[in-house]
Design a protein that fits this description.
By secondary structure, the chain is an alpha/beta fold. α2 links the parallel β1 and β2. It is globular, with a radius of gyration of 15 Å. α1 crosses α2 and α3 runs parallel beside α5. The protein has a single domain, classed as Rossmann fold (3-Layer(aba) Sandwich). The C terminus is likely disordered. Strands 2-1-3-4 form a four-stranded parallel sheet.
Length: about 200
């Protein structure tokens, strides 16, 4: 099982059964895993604002967390307005943000950005995973984080949504380095309880 498959299976084990997506080439390993693994409903959106708005609406209607798959830092930036609204509503969302392959980052590819810096203002918890070995623990840690019971303000001990960032080359591999997976998640305090 590779890092992308581990991520999907862990999301499912944490009760997250839908992923609103606007993927690019750097997220194809995750898209392939969504196709292979039963149980995760994948909904394609043609713009990141649609994807993040749908995830927020899903939470508000169902009171069940959703995930998003966004293309790199610019894709995350396109969805920030709705993530701001979701943060204020304390919606349960895990944002998975794709990242360039390691060699592309070194070359400052056109869509390279500080994804953690972009995610932090709208994320409760931002965490970077260095390899596919840490995907499951980080995903579970985000889903079970007691920090989501804070007043929504900003990152760290604050309360916004989650954002995983897998690197393109490593998502296919079983034990290769995987670029940032930012995993924040938030829920209303009434539902915050350690599992």
């Amino acid at each position: 099982m590779n890092g992308a498959e581990t991520l999907v299976r862990t999301l499912l084990s944490e009760g997250i059964e839908v992923c609103f997506t606007n993927p690019g080439t750097s997220e194809m390993h995750f898209v392939a895993a969504l196709d292979r693994i039963e149980g995760m409903r994948c909904v394609l959106g043609l713009f990141e604002g649609v994807v993040t708005g749908a995830a927020d609406g899903y939470w508000r209607m169902k009171q069940s967390p959703a995930s998003t798959l966004l293309h790199l830092g610019p894709g995350l930036a396109n969805g920030l307005a709705n993530l701001h609204n979701a943060k204020k509503a304390r919606s349960g969302i895990v944002n998975i943000v794709g990242e360039h392959a390691l060699p592309h980052i070194a070359l400052d590819a056109p869509l390279t950005s500080d994804i953690e810096g972009v995610a932090r203002p709208m994320s409760q918890w931002v965490h970077t995973i260095g390899s596919s070995v840490g995907v499951q623990a980080a995903t579970r840690g985000a889903a079970r984080s007691p920090r989501w019971c804070c007043p929504p303000i900003a990152p760290g001990a604050r309360c916004p949504p989650p954002s995983p960032i897998p690197g393109r080359s490593s998502g296919w591999a079983e034990r290769r380095p995987m670029l940032p997976i930012l995993l924040p998640r938030w829920m209303p305090c009434a539902q915050a309880s350690p599992r």
